[in-house]
Specification:
With 476 residues, the protein is an alpha+beta fold. Helix content is 24%, strand content 26%.
Length: 476
């Protein structure tokens, strides 16, 4: 009978299937793969990682499939297994062999090792009778896709996939059985070879048919379809394909998932793709020993506290000698106490103010450090002089005092009328009483009278008379 026409999509695919290596298997990407924006993808660059599946192969081994051709089918199955991550937590594989009868060669829970699976596939032999495709699908649904046989339950959210390979027309009512299988959640792929009926393939396969129906002219090229199933079952890695749109770094999470990260000094924006510079000063990741100064756009610089200088590493600080550098702020004297430490002092006669830097002149009279025997008189800022109590005179040391009665003894009884002694005595007495009058301690007036003429402004308290010189001294 004439072969049915091929769908448009398969006609376009057909030339590729005839090219050696045209559909070679791409390498498998691993979780955590990082790739910059725009990094190339493609076959052979590890662009995908297979997602976990509960996968059941349904293979036609009727009499029309010659032994060599059946070997090609087993190679096709092994090549698909090679592209998968096999394991109890990854993809589980079962195989249903059918012709007029159906035989489950192994269940989903039988093998968790890729090599053991491939050896089991290699041991399968044809059944060599009719083509009961409907019965094979029903058996897979009833016995292979069950929890008891190793299929994972609905809560695991693991896809259930069946690949049926046939080269003939089904000899039973396959459409209704396939519809029930699809309704139960099984995704059906139909692969037709040589004399396979295209309409029957479409009846069995899931929608969209363009992605679930495959056809090859002979078993000799069926192996070429393994790469198509690899692309179908693997999750494409946007990080390696360069389609991630991450501004800085793309991180593959496996199963086609990824997330974006940012370079150091940046944080991920709310769109989860672009990055913004972070304030390292605010994040406390700057490493500055003292102060961090944010410069914006993710940059910063370090500074030091007063009294310290920034070291060559631009992060740590060293105490500086402010007394030596003249940056101490002391009004009078800076005293170094140690590395980076100092205090201020004042010159003699001054006191340090509350600011510990400036100085104020002190009143020595008030402080009692003047040294005056009797009276200290403040003349202003740090200036003073000494005075004596009434009846005393200030000695030549300007600090101690002597009683006034001693003035009388200044006149020597010997040679009292000598001109030199008289003049000296008069000078001393005049100077003495002038000082007393100036300081308002005593008021004195001295009158020197010669002969019998004597006049006094007030009654004298005492009178000194020297007849030899006719000299009188009145003390009021």
């Amino acid at each position: 009978m004439p072969r049915p026409p091929l769908p448009r999509r398969l006609l376009l695919l057909w030339p590729l299937l005839l090219l050696p290596g045209a559909l070679a298997s791409p390498a498998v990407a691993r979780p955590g793969t990082r790739g910059p924006a725009g990094s190339p993808g493609g076959r052979g660059t590890g662009v995908c990682k297979s997602r976990p599946l509960d996968l059941v192969f349904i293979i036609d081994s009727s009499r029309s499939v010659r032994p060599l051709e059946f070997t090609k089918v087993k190679t096709f199955v092994s090549q698909i297994i090679d592209t998968l991550d096999i394991g109890a937590a990854a993809t589980r594989v079962a195989l249903v062999n059918y012709a007029s009868t159906v035989k489950i060669e192994f269940q989903l829970q039988t093998y968790a090792d890729k090599q053991a699976l491939k050896k089991a596939v290699a041991r399968i032999t044809p059944l060599s009778t009719g083509t009961m495709s409907g019965l094979a699908i029903q058996t897979a649904m009833d016995e292979a896709f069950t929890v008891q046989a190793g299929a994972r339950g609905p809560t695991a959210n693991i896809p259930k996939v069946a690949i049926i390979v046939t080269d003939g027309r089904p000899q039973d009512q396959v459409s209704e059985v396939a519809a029930r299988a699809r309704a139960s959640g099984i995704e059906l792929y139909a692969v037709g070879v040589d004399r396979a009926d295209m309409e029957s393939l479409k009846t069995m396969a899931s929608e969209p048919l363009g992605e679930h129906v495959f056809y090859v002219e002979t078993y000799g090229v069926i192996e070429k379809l393994s790469s198509r199933f690899q692309e179908t079952f693997c999750a494409l890695d946007p990080c390696l394909l360069g389609t991630h749109q991450c501004q800085h770094v793309c991180v593959s999470d496996g199963d086609g998932r990824h997330h974006c990260e940012c370079s150091q000094g940046y944080t991920l924006n709310s769109d989860q793709r672009t990055c913004a510079a972070v304030n390292k000063c605010a994040l406390n990741t700057h490493g500055c020993e003292h102060l961090c100064v944010d410069e914006g756009t993710g940059s910063y610089h370090c500074e030091c506290y007063e009294g310290h200088t920034l070291n060559e590493d631009k992060k740590s600080c060293s105490a500086q000698d402010k007394c030596a550098s003249g940056t101490h702020g002391c009004q009078h004297i800076c005293v170094k106490d140690g590395p980076g430490s100092h205090h201020c002092e004042c010159f003699e006669g001054y006191t340090l103010n509350a600011d510990k830097k400036t100085c104020t002149v002190r009143n020595k009279c008030a402080l009692g450090t003047h040294g005056c025997q009797h009276i200290c008189v403040s003349d202003g800022a740090a200036s003073y002089h000494c005075d004596c109590f009434p009846g005393y005179s200030l000695n030549e040391d300007k600090k101690t005092c002597a009683a006034v009665e001693e003035v009388r003894r200044l006149v020597s009884t010997e040679d009292a009328c000598g001109c030199e002694a008289s003049l000296a005595f008069q000078d001393k007495v005049s100077s003495y009483f002038q000082r007393l009058n100036t300081k308002h301690i005593l008021s004195a007036r001295v009158s020197a009278l010669r002969g019998a003429d004597l006049g006094m402004a007030a009654e004298p308290r005492s009178l000194g008379y020297f007849p030899e010189c006719a000299l009188f001294v009145a003390i009021r």
